[in-house]
What does this fold into?
Amino acid sequence: MTEEFILETRQLTREFKGFVAVDRVDLRIKRGTIHALIGPNGAGKTTVFNLLTKFLAVSGGQILYKGQDITTHKAADVARMGMVRSFQISAVFPHLSVLENVRVGLQRKLGTSFHFWKSERTLDVLNDRAMALLDEVGLSRYADTVTVELPYGRKRALEIATTLALDPELMLLDEPTQGMGHEDVGRVVELIRKVAAQRTVLMVEHNMHVVANLCDTITVLARGSVLAEGPYDQVSRDPRVLEAYVGSTEETHL
It folds into this structure.
């Protein structure tokens, strides 16, 4: 693998009791780009994410990150190497403040990731960096707000801030605009565009308008295999892709 690609899979496969959910998938994610995985429901998108981030074991094939084979690495090891995932369902602490949520993410820098009993004073050294991250995602005025009180779209922005706290080189975003109204979608799209300026983003996304306006490269999965790949204009005209979406229950269309 050349330096041009930060992540590569070779013949990536996952079987569940004889059912092949991911079937010999080859991916190559270029550094500094926004790359989308799309496909009808059941295409294998989330399973691929789970394989990449080690929440599932690989049945066959290889995963290479920055040229290193990470196929058998543990999830925590992959995160420490700079590949960090955010989740489809907001993964923040609802009863902590917005600022406290980001500070939890930053604790790794102090080597106290699991020391939730650390004194408030110990964590105060993280405040400046936490506030800078909140400013980056447009949440600085919500710093003292209890997270459960945030509107849904702002919670997703907070989740991106907590992901950024881990200083990722590669961010994996699982349906970052799911369940959002139009205004929130626009805000999160601009946020992703902003944070992607300094890093690589791989995302699963159903909203084709988001994909068309945000992503450099799109990989279309169908029945666990790669159906097509390229920029949106090319992929959206591919007869195989159009056929895969015919009769699907997707809310958005190519």
